[in-house]
């Protein structure tokens, strides 16, 4: 996706997440989730899906913050609230 604009990335999220995010990062996040999980027998695919959902949520916030028109961008207080919701959602699942 070299030489593309943010509009292309907006269209790519979530379907092409793997092409946007470093796959090593996703794997590392899954490994951390597995090591800190109370359910050590959880399915790796399920954890990967949860990790991808978290990353998609974060990327969507980042893309909204990068909107071309300032009026379309999120206010920082909304960003903090949304990031807190993401954190709560993805830490409660353990």
TrEMBL record:
Stated name of the protein: Serine-threonine/tyrosine-protein kinase catalytic domain-containing protein
Domain of life: Eukaryota
């Amino acid at each position: 996706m070299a030489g593309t604009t943010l509009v292309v990335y907006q269209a790519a999220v979530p379907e092409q997440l793997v092409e946007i995010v470093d796959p090593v990062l996703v794997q590392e996040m899954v490994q951390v989730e597995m090591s800190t999980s109370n359910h050590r027998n959880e399915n790796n695919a399920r954890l990967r899906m949860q990790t991808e959902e978290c990353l998609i949520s974060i990327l969507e916030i980042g893309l909204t913050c990068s909107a071309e028109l300032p009026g379309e961008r999120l206010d920082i207080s909304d960003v903090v609230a949304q990031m807190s919701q993401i954190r709560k959602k993805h830490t409660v699942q353990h």
